[in-house]
Structure formats: C-alpha cells, structure tokens
Amino acid sequence: MHIHLDALGGVAGDMFAAALLDAFPEHQAGVSASVRAVDARIACAVRAHNDGILSGARFAVSAPGEVSGAVSGPAPHRHEHPAPHEHPHPHPHPHDHGHDHGHDHGQEHGQEHGHDRARAHDHGHRPWSEIRAALEAADLAPAVRAHALGIFGHLADAEARVHGIAVEAVAFHEVGAADSIADIVAAAHLIAALGTRSWSVSALPLGSGRVRTQHGPLPVPAPATTLLLAGFATLDDGIPGERVTPTGAAILRHLCGDDPGRGRPRGILGRTGIGFGTKVLPGLSNCLRALVLEENAAPGPGRRDLAVIAFEVDDQSGEDLATGLDRLRAEPGIVDVVQMPVIGKKGRMMARIQVLVRPESLEAAIAACFRETTTIGLRYHPVEGAMLERAARTVEHDGLSVRVKIVARPGGRTAKAEADDARGRAGHAARAALRREAERRALEQEQEER
Predict the structure, then answer these.
(1) CATH class of 302-387
(2) CA distances from 371 to 161, 192, 325, 327 (A)
(3) Where do the record's region annotations for Disordered lie (predicted)?
C-alpha cells in the first residue's frame, strides 16, 4: 500500500490525522488510546465536516486548560489552519502564547498572533526533554513510540537550529505542547497501524506574509518549516498565510526521509480521506487529501526488490540498542529489523543486526544504522523477495482497541492480532482469548466488506 498526500489547502498535524482517519475510521479508538497513554488529560475526537464544497473530517483535541466540551464543539484551541500554538519555543523565553505561524493567513497588518485564551492565561512551557521522557515511559506499542519520537525529534532539531540553541533547550508552550502531542502521537499511531509501504506528497503551497510573535515579525513559511521542507517540491497558488506548519513539515520529513521528491507511483486507487483545517481559504477548500493506492492485484505472492544490511554490535548496552533498533524500524523504507546473538573474537557475545530495506531507501537506512548504533562498519547486498497481500485494521472488543493484520494466503485469509494491544489483560488465558476474538472479528468484518 502507498499513500499519496494531496496538499490542496496545506499540511498540518491535525489535517494529516483527520485525512487518514477519514479514510480509515476503524483506527479512531486506537488513536485515542495512544494519545491518552501519553497524557491522560488530552482527549481527541474526529468530527465530520463539510465546507460547502467537499466533505471530510476534522481532528479535534481537548487539552489541559481548554474549555470543557471542546472536543464536541468547534475546537477553540485549534488554529485557523492547524494549531496556533503547536510551534515550540526555545526555553526559557517568557512567551505568553505560542507562535505556530498558521493561526491567521496573510497577517501582514499587525494582528496579534495566537489565541485569546493563551494571552489571557499565563501558560508555562514544557521542555522537549520532558515530552520525550513521557513518550518513552508511555504504554505505547514500540512502533508507535518510535514514530512519535522520530517526528518530535525532527521538530525539536529544526527549532534548535533556527534559534541557535541546544536541542535540550527547546520547549513547547504548554497548550501548544498538548496539541503537538495529540497530533504527533495520532500520526505515529496511524503510520504504525497502517504499515504503509511508502508515502509521497504533492507540491506544497508555501503561502506568504508575516506573523507577529514574541520574537517579533517572522516570515511565512516559518523558519523551522523551511528547514524541514528542504528538497520538497513547492508551489505558489496566490493564497497568502501559513499553509504548512512545523508539525506538518516534521511529519512529511519523517515519512519521506531523504527522498522528498518521490513521485506518486502507479497503482489501484482504493480508499480516500479528506482532513480539514478550520481556516476558510478564499475560493479553496482548506484540506489535505489522502489517496490510498494498492499494488496491482495478482494471484499468489508478489515480487519485490530489497536490500539487506548486516552488522554486529558488541559495545552498546542492550537497553540503548533496543531503543536504537526501534528507531530504525520507524525509518521510512525499512521493512524489518532483527537481531540475534552470536559469538565473536575472544569468545565475546555480540548482537548481529539484519535490516531489510527498500533499494531506494538504502543510503538513508545505512546512515540511520550508523546513527542509532555503535557499529563502525556494515555489509549490504541486494535480494529478491516475495510477499503476500496484507491489510491492517483495528477492532474493538470489551473496551479495548486491538490491531489485526490480515494476510491473503493461497489457502485462505488469516489474521494475527497485535500482541502489544493485549498487554492490559492479566493472565495468559485472558490475553489469548482477547487475541482470538479480535482476529475472529477482523476476519468477519473483512469478509463483510469484500
């Protein structure tokens, strides 16, 4: 499966989540559970929306300090395109509101940027290190955690470069941090749950103008956004204002890696989803569209070209290596990562790492291996692979969301529940029963849709 993002109105974290949840509504409960696992005070919901031209969905978040009921009504903390406060600040500047430059478009006339409640209340700032610790400690599936850390890491790195500070000094406005956590964790959950083979994005509308912040007037696109979008195709559609937010840009960088110019491949169009921002653009729907492309259906296993990267590690702690391998698994283009114990010279125990990667992502994967592990050398070679058609879905059972992978085998379709989603049940028998029921329901739902 390949997903192409059509950035008609632009790209923001909430628009990305809304577009994918519009296409894959069965993942709504799982997204909410992942967000709550990181911060139980944050609630999120998907609302149907029609702008008079197109219909789709909005992703609404109720953050700490927000008006009660913000999820079900117009989300007052969401910005007019994405969130006005998702943009981080370098700590310890005493800003009274966020400055994600997308609250109003074309703000060249001195209008105050940000939202009124943020100006009215003295919200604090939440350091990136604190958010990272919360993600690492949260009861998230390893792949979801790795994607969330990867996206947030891109965002923090860009902000640090813009302001000339250390990454550890970057801090998010308290309300903006809640929005960013919800948007990024939702995106991470969907990326992990869908298991998409590859991603691409249309030319991006950069917008224009300036916004007023505590730093003074800043240009659109935001400085952090320009760093994150290096190498992406852009366009000028004549509509001013911020069109791609820093969080949206961080998601795109995470998905496309070092290949931002990847085009939309040939394929069979399947599901589509439309995610709206709240800003009304003149003569244009303010939305992001997700187009889901399936590979040409063919009997039996499909063929694909791959590459294998292999190396050994004997001087990295098990805990840190596990973290590094989880981050490798979240890298775009990496299909799988495995490790096995081997004995090296002088009888020393080592971990042998094998990474399966798509050929077009080989160089980026090699760089990631050197970045995330202590190896100083590796081997790689091309291989051919065969794979069966598979699909991912989320089912609800007894108050839990369980992800299930369905595979089309020559003898029929089989289902395998995600073991991590059964961790909340005490006892082997209870976990096994939950997985069996989730697999049964997933196959039943899949059969009904065929």
Answers:
(1) alpha beta
(2) 19, 22, 11, 10
(3) 65-122, 412-432
